[in-house]
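Figure 3 (text version): structure tokens given as input.
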């Protein structure tokens, strides 16, 4: 059903050849990452070897988590388009597995921070991993929301254009999550920084999707409740893309120590400094005006001014 819907829509934005090729990235390729093992050094005692082994386990499990989430996106999209309530419920229940996996992985990261006192690159790696756990867990929650919404609009018939746009949003969201995990696996700052631009495609699809819903509602093909629920589905997919962009930013931090928030913080400090300088300049001007007024009142009357002193 999904393939037929997608092919029947002529308004679905086309993907570039490069994107079509890279979107074929399989879940297996996310897990089989032995060629990108972390280089933690060769001269290590037994304790450090165990510690670095734990870091590798965190990394491997994060890749596995990314694979679980990307698979969930595809299955959730299929359940929505096929109106498969059983498949939707399986994914809703399966989110508990992802939550449990995330919790265990997060606790291991906290334990490493507490017991090993990592510094520099190792510290950034663990902090980045903690952030990625949160971003991926939230992405899975958004697909659960898609599945729950599919139950509320079970009786709604999707037009060909809307079906095609939903499928395209699912493809783009899956690709973004996989690309984000790839950037983490490879410590690829180029890919990480490009995710924001890649996400523009998903944003455009979401806008086109909402417009299609409005048209369908105005033509009386979709009631208000159904239109609202369907619009929220588009928002869920768009937010998955935003989480992928956040992952890219954290990968940049892991590799370089740079965060985009630093630019904003610098701008804010500059604004505060300019505001403080403006206040000081205003106070100085006011003081000068006050001193000038006092001097004028205390000065003797000029000759020939025509003014007569009191009592003259």
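Below: residues designed for each position.
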């Amino acid at each position: 059903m999904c393939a037929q819907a997608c092919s029947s829509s002529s308004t679905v934005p086309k993907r570039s050849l490069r994107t079509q090729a890279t979107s074929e990235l399989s879940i297996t390729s996310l897990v089989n990452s032995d060629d990108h093992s972390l280089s933690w050094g060769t001269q290590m005692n037994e304790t450090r070897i165990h510690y670095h082994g734990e870091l590798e386990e965190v990394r491997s499990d994060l890749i596995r988590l990314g694979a679980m989430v990307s698979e969930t996106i595809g299955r959730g999209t299929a359940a929505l388009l096929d109106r498969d309530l059983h498949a939707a419920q399986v994914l809703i229940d399966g989110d508990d597995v992802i939550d449990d996996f995330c919790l265990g992985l997060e606790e291991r990261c906290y334990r490493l921070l507490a017991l090993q006192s990592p510094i520099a690159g190792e510290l950034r790696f663990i902090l980045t991993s903690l952030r990625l756990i949160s971003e991926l867990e939230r992405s899975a929650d958004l697909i659960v929301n898609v599945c729950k919404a599919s139950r509320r609009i079970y009786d709604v018939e999707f037009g060909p254009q809307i079906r095609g746009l939903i499928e395209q949003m699912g493809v783009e969201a899956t690709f973004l999550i996989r690309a984000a995990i790839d950037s983490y696996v490879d410590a690829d700052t180029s890919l990480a920084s490009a995710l924001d631009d890649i996400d523009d495609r998903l944003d455009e699809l979401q806008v086109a999707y909402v417009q299609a819903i409005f048209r369908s509602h105005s033509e009386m093909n979709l009631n208000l409740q159904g239109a609202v629920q369907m619009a929220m589905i588009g928002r869920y997919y768009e937010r998955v893309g935003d989480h992928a962009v956040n992952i890219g930013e954290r990968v940049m931090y892991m590799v370089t120590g740079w965060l985009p928030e630093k630019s904003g913080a610098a701008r804010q400090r500059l604004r505060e400094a300019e505001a403080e300088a403006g206040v000081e300049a205003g106070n100085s001007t006011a003081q000068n005006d006050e001193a000038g007024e006092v001097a004028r009142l205390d000065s003797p009357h000029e000759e020939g001014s025509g003014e007569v002193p009191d009592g003259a």
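Residues 1-37, 302-306 have pLDDT under 50 and may be disordered.
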